[in-house]
User: Fold these one by one.
Assistant:
Number 1:
Amino acid sequence: MAETKTNLRQAKAKAFVNGIVSEKDLKVVTDKGETRIEGNITVKTSDVNFIRFGVYAKEKTSNGTANKAYAGIQTVMNEYKSIADVGEEEATEVKVSGDVSAFTRDDGRVLVTYRSNFFNRVKAGDELDPKAEFSIEMFISSIAPEFTTDGEETGRLLVGGWVPTYNGIDPIELVAEGDVASAIDSGFEVGQTVEFYGEIINNQIRTVTEIPVKIGKPRQKVEVTYKNDLIIQGASEAYEEGITAELPYEADTIQIAIQEREARLAEEKAKKKSGQSEVAKPKPSGAAHGRTLGF
């Protein structure tokens, strides 16, 4: 099957993070005559919030010249220090500008990931302003209350949408709370194109429970839970041709792109060997109870 791809303007989907390098896992790879640095860098923005960026920088550009991003990542690899290696007091403080992207697993779950080749040290004498923020343009496909697994409303609003990317289109889900949720519920409609901005929540919460023993030191049971949300804090006006500088996405074109995506995923799945792992239970969604375009 020949791959087709509808030509859609790539949406802006950015992450802006200030924090301390928590972990650094980078390596130089040479493959088929090409050298690159790849791996991950995790940045700590609070005691419980950690943002992991995927890194992939080729030594040469497509026209064979030196890649400035590669040189920058070399500096990160050789000079930046992580909390895991030297402790928090000596670890490098950074400002990161990166991309937000969605990755669809084999079980259908969509995971939000972050990638960047641009890490800048906070200058000596400057005070670090920790933050983890996003700015995402999207075509709204659903606006609905969030429900618990028991069917109770949480009070939060789920805003689902589609984000055109350089290689197709991906779904994404944002969360709104309080007055922001009310404003979105009354101020926007499915089918509109909007730029949302807000806070990235990637919490790692460790709960340590001591288990009494009759002899020796108490045992410890450590449980780690994760909370991953994109919390909306504001939004642009809905894009409108002739009124806003940005053009809105057309529903018909979005639907064609979604169909192409589904065909591509089905083809990729068919190529894989049989024997799938157990399908993970999706997180609760209120889309069936709210406003949706059905795609």
Note: Residues 13-121+130-240+248-269+284-292 form a domain with the OB fold (Dihydrolipoamide Acetyltransferase, E2P) fold (CATH 2.40.50.140).
Number 2:
Amino acid sequence: MSGIVPQLRRSRKERLCRQLRQCRKAKERTRYLIILNLLNGRSVADIILTLQVGRSTVYDVAKRFRERGEAGLIDRREENGNRKLDEVYLARLYELVKGSAQDYGWRRPTWTRELLVETMAWETGVRIHVSTMSTALKMISARQGRPRPTVGCPWSKRVKNRRLCELRRLVESLPDDEVAVYEDEVDIHLNPKIGLDWMVCGQQKEVLTPGKNVKQYLAGAIDSRTGELIWVEGDKKNTLLFINLLWALVQHYRAAKTIHVILDNYCIHSTRQVEVSLATTEGQRIQLHFLPPYCPNHHRIERLWRDLHSSVTRNHRCATMPELMAEVRWWLKKRNQLKPLSA
């Protein structure tokens, strides 16, 4: 089958080998490999199997080589003129995708490839095909995902940053006889949270739900030094649950002079019952430090609760709440045994 390409002198073969070693484009390398294999007497079937290309590709490359020589192996798209997906276009597309379609006059809140094509045509004067937009999105590493709902902090940026800096300094300069923990509550639902999972093509997994939902609650505190979690359980997310956690902290850190509890502004953290509890002899060892409102990204325990949902409650198959809570306790105890060093 080597007859589909002309025989070359040894010097020209060596030149093709040198060009192959210098080639950085994958498709161009494949063309060089096809020609060199044909020149070395390998059959088309062997080339297809080795290079994982189609039969038509082998014959097309051979035809180009017969007609134009080595120049036929070069990517002919270089003759198309200036590339549309240049750095300027991709940088503008990156800024576009970060925002909402409504920011650019569309009534639809989410982007589609068609809307991106039209908007980029207005913004840059360059119009591309919808399939080319897919390539452009891949080039800027764009992906489709679920946005995270957030609530804006009502504090000014200056006041918010000042409070966060104070809490950061508190944790970083903590004396040896004092402890700082991040406290929060989490809901455990018997009806499983639905989340992403791997599935084979053509199949959608099903998660059997008990129907009537039941809830349990955890109040937890994560040590800022060691990452250890101390938690209590309850049937209701109320002040009693929070106070039970505070007493669990007092018992756990018997040698600590002061226990600094960093927490959010949930209403159960600042009731009259909490004030009375903190006024006792043991309660005076506890100091509460409130984060700015609606700042979950600065609350270190939030990551732990996300891991708990990912590892236990998401898509779970437990039929009863005791069964689910047993799984939750096992995961939390297992996590503490690993002794994470970063909270």
Note: The chain has three domains: 2-79, 87-139, 159-337.
Number 3:
Amino acid sequence: MNTPVTPAATELAGSDPFGLLTATPVTGGARIRLLRTVPSALAALLANKGRSILTTLGIIIGVAAVIAIVALGEGASASVATQLSGLGTNLLTIQPGSAQSGGARAGAGTAVTLTAADADAIAQNVANLNGVSPVVSGRNQLVAGAQNWSTNVQGVTPSYLSIENWTIADGAPFTDQDNTDSANVVLLGQTVVTDLFPNGQSPVGQVIRIRNVPFTVVGVLAAKGGGQDDTALIPFQTGQVRLFGASSINQIVLQVSDAGLMTTATNDVTTLLRQRHRLSANQASDFRIQNNNDLITRVSSVSQTMTALLGGVAAVSLVVGGIGIMNIMLVSVTERTREIGIRLAIGAQPRDVLAQFLVEAVVLSVLGGVIGILIGSGVALLLPIVAGWTTVLPWNAIVLAFGVSAAIGMFFGIYPARKASQLDPIVALRYE
């Protein structure tokens, strides 16, 4: 049975634009009562537009910051992954050990311990390899007409291109016959092409000079980015005969056919090279083997950790925004104490009052969440245009941020709502 409403209460209710003084019927399910609470909650928020907007600022900034930072972090991770994939996968790089002079050790790769014969032995005796290439390299000045450019020139075999994931953008790669004949041919990276041929003409077929030795450009390497394009590749035999003139080599690169065989291949190469270099059991290896997959995993892990850390820092503002909502709702309860008392006195249930204040808190946080999503997504889409940064719009972060904003409104709205619903009607009516 509904509680009868007195003429005095009706007069009071007539002056209540929020519907707060109107007793909500006890009959009907909780869902119906909640739906009937929504209009009065919205009316209360609209009556204080300025305060409502300021209250949502914390949520807006928090959600926008989370989305923008995660989008930037995901974009950075994707960019790093793209650059690392350009290094080649399932790759093992063998470098000479460190030279020692007077008790002082130099850095890795300074010793003269690797030879082209080592690379040939690996290719013949180690199973499950897609390719092996010795590398001899050094920094040299390249000259084309009136232009010159200093870059890293590498002498490699044709298989190096597939091992290191290089593709040809213009022209053609050099061949095994070019390597056998020590032909003076060269492949140029995009950075070298830009600096030697600034007018945009094709370098293919042009003759350039490396250490005053003429080389014909037979191809241009496709861009990789990350500084990898500043290079020039020549046949391995040409490098040893025409430029570097050394029997030792800088490194050996090889590609394993399957990621699951990387450890086996590393062990096989280690055993083979130690035998070839006549190292006893108590002697340290005079070479080092680097697993490219481990490097890719470590760098990707660091990038993901930084993204999570920055996203977590931005998420702190969501909590701050929730505290702001709680504070404003507590102020609202204090301001409307007498009205709440009148409503309880004329038959409203405590759960009706609780529902209204809870709905107000959730509406504020959800509204802030929606606006924050729009701002954060806009920033994520504009960053590549304005700053040239790579971003990836994180749809999972958007859904999560919206859910978290609603949950924050619910969590931080419970205390003020319970405080309002538990007011003593008599005490509330006496409140001034």
Note: Confidence is low (pLDDT under 50) at residues 1-29, 99-107.
Number 4:
Amino acid sequence: MGVKAARIVFPPSDREEIAAAITDILATGALTLGPYTRQFEEAFGAAHGAQHAVATSSGTSALEISLRAIGVAGRDVIVPANTFYATAAAVLRAGARPVFADIDAATFALNLDTVTAVLTRDTAAVVLVHVGGLITPEIGELQRLGTDRGIVLVEDAAHAHGSTCDGIFAGSFGVASAFSFYPTKVVTSGEGGMILTGSQEIADEARIYRDQGKGSFGANHHVRHGYAWRMSEQNAVTGLVHLRRMDEFIARRREVAARYDKALAELDGLRALAEPPRCRSNIYKYIAVLPEGMDRAVFKQEMAERHDVRLAGEVYDVPLHQQPVLAEFATGEPLPVAEDMCARHVCLPVHSDMTDDEVDQVLTAAAAVYGRLSASGPGQAGG
């Protein structure tokens, strides 16, 4: 049997509960901004120790709403170069200019030096992305930088459901944070997002923005340039049920990661992204960095064709400053660490219900392919 890049896990009992709830939703006609949305908000906020939670239509909209609520229009917002397009898109849609920063190779995240290097007089905010579910241990330094300079820290926690640093959950470090419930995430609602914040004002603004900028749900009275960013009740109940599995899913993913760590440590030159002390990742992605000169495309091809193991997508393969659609915001200056890490890493498959046999298959494949390519020399595909 092959190992897929990703697998979405809904046990039969969960599917039955969701189906019954959707039948109820359709019978009542309360299809949006109803009781399941409120329950999901309350449960997700409680699971992350957050005071306020606001459900939205996507992680992208959650980030855009957060940036709109704090007021970044006309100013600069720093983002890491190695993040998904949506991070920069949310900045642009909120009326700000994205400024691309380099990253730390040890964490795939911004650090104090890379942020300081691109600060401008117009910097309004820094968006810290928890790539693969890992929160950088330097997050406290970034918080202090923002406080000292009047710059707002926002978390793009799309990958980081249940992740912690110093025992503090993702979503608790910035003034606001954005989570995604896209199908591949540790917790999914099909489509959807969530804003977590300790600010009543930001939460109130977010609820206005997500519902076409209306002052109240039933009124045709618009006070903000909002949009249709609501979460449906069907999505909300799906997320609510799936959220109950978060702890067990993360526990299994961490067991898989521990086995990967041990095996990859024996492959000289293949570096797993280490979990720093004080940090506990949800292992949304398992990231490993190939040695210089090894062809990633060939590595992935041989894993699939010779061993029936499909690798998960990169995080990410093309940095933002090299994306054609964002060319006008690129300065032309290299961001060498981001460029290098984007080009050389792979993501081994991790499923929330991964079997030991699947783990063995991945490790056998990785050792064989890595050994073969290492023996062939840089850039060699072999016969």
Note: The chain has twelve helices and 13 strands.
